[in-house]
Amino acid sequence: MELAREPGAGAQTESGQAQRTGLRGGHRLPGGAWTGQVGGGYSALYLRAAALFRELALARADGSLRHFLARLARIEVLVIDDWAMAPLNESERRELWEICEDRYQTRSTLLTSQLPVSRWHEQIGDPTIADGILDRLVHNAHRIEMRGESMRKHRNPTPDEEETMKPLRTRDQ
User: In this predicted model, which residue has the larger pLDDT, 31 or 141?
Assistant: First the structure.
């Protein structure tokens, strides 16, 4: 996935995260978001669900929510990482429904989650809104379910991580 600089995005380039995930030339935004372009020149935005909901709350508070939702609707590939890690509150439910409605059958939305899809309904909360959100997300979706150990367990630890992983004692001590 190749990311290119979005005008006005003043941020670091080529962080360790970008190098590990194959993102090159991308720009990190506050809150761990990435913005740029994917193959074929499609605009893309990657952010964690918690960061998305924080940004929505800030936009709601400063009166720019409509503008923020319109920007999200124009992004061709929206990647929301760590989806459904915590139950949604009322405003998060409504705003996520708006995002899904605006993007339905016109833009791509990718979600990553530790929870199986069967548990998403309970994390959304309100059954009517949950039905609306999941109908838009799951209809025509391609699901990829990963099995096995976390890939993080297989990466090379940093020197600091190696130090913390050493046992305090060995059996011989």
Answer: 141
